[in-house]
Amino acid sequence: MNAATASTTADARALRFVALLATYLQSANLPLPNAALRLIQGSVSMTDDQAGWIFTAYLAASAVTTPVAQWLAGRFGLKRVYQTALLAFALGLWLATLAETPLAFIAARILQGLAAGVLAPLSMGIALETLPAERRPAFGPKWTALVLLGIASGPSLGGWICEHFDWRPMFYLSLPLVAYIFLAVTLLLAEKKAEQRPSFDFFGYGAFTLGMIGLQMLLDRGERLDWFDSPEIWTEALACALGFYLFAVHVLTAKAHFFNKALFADRNFLLSTAIFFAFGFVLLSTMALTSPMLDEILGYPPDTTGLLTVPRGIGLVGAFLLATRAPAWVDACWLIAAGIALVAYANWLMLGYSPLMDWTPVAVNGFIQGVGLGILMPALSKVAFSTLEPKLRPEATGLFNLIRVYGSTLGVAMVQIFFFNNTQAVHSALVSQLTPYRTTLPTSLPALEGLNHLATHQAAFIAVMGQFKILLVAMLVVSPLVLFLRKPVSAN
Fold this sequence. Notes:
Elements: H1 3-28, H2 37-44, H3 53-65, H4 69-76, H5 78-98, H6 102-129, H7 139-164, H8 169-172, H9 174-188, H10 202-222, H11 231-253, H12 261-265, H13 267-297, H14 302-307, H15 310-324, H16 332-350, H17 360-386, H18 393-432, H19 445-478
Subcellular location: Cell membrane
Family: Belongs to the major facilitator superfamily. EmrB family.
Protein name: DHA2 family efflux MFS transporter permease subunit
């Protein structure tokens, strides 16, 4: 090997490393604040019903930019767009550390999400370009495993940092890594543009995005604004309806559009995508429920709260890597059924949580759910793409992953809505029984405050159990779809 070849190979490895590092950073920063919600809420005066925005703001923003990332790279240049996304991501991290109000913190998370939505697909593209053609097909599962590793390890890293320092260093520590990635990309990545100006269905993209943003805002803001008693909620509902109406008409009438109609004609892809939506619904919603339960209700410190997500992460990543290596004779439809069954079983076990339990049920049930999700993801991908025409697979990949992201963001929003509704309802039911005719009520103000705190504590825990039931129902609803899947055929 001559010096030039060695240098080129070393540069390719360095580029692949920083692309993978960027992939990990953008996925780990999504759940990073999960174990430190109580401290973040206290620092920025964020109410409980706003806590879910920490996740949904990042997710929804990333879903907006992910579909257009490749077009931006082709139009303005891969290197320029990637560097801009890195700078925006770093700015979002820095602004999060400066936030003193809920609005400022959520705005920083939105900026992080917008940048992450560009970084994720472009990082994969950069990494693939550094590999020989024969090694590229095997790279996809490794990249997905890294994304899952970031999601799984983010809360434990954030919890440890928060316990020993503060919540702001969680974001500070990512800044040097982003600077390193930016420097490596500046020195090693050659600028690349499309030879011809790329086309993109901005009308279809805009209509679909308007519908999803309207729906997300409706769910996130509805509880706080008393739903349709607020003009804002009516505006968001109308935006949602208009967006989806325009998108449906566009799909039915236009020859070329954001989502190819041929994708919806493939039964395996359509059914697998529906199940993958439920996968996303459960993936992050469980995390959004478990950590606050441990931190705020059961009183675990942030580092312990974060550590209790590790068994779930081990099960998720480990089962994913094993499932991708399943022998060809293993029917992926059976793996999907097994994955759904394990996730549903774990969610059913979570209904048995008690305020008197120790950490063991959380670790065990999380591990079981992680194994089920890890089996489900590669099996669904195999079935979804096995019957598609090869020319449709790139577009199908984008839609498939986008549906998972929207499943996650809508799932977090839904469980937050029902959590606060149920907490209020159960609290009212409990307090209504505290009358002088049923029990001896304390008369001092501190004692009454303590009694109210106890009732709120019990109501919140009961409400969390109700949200685990929603996750169980979500998996049970999609489980019959497995019966209609066709056995995968060999990929062309």
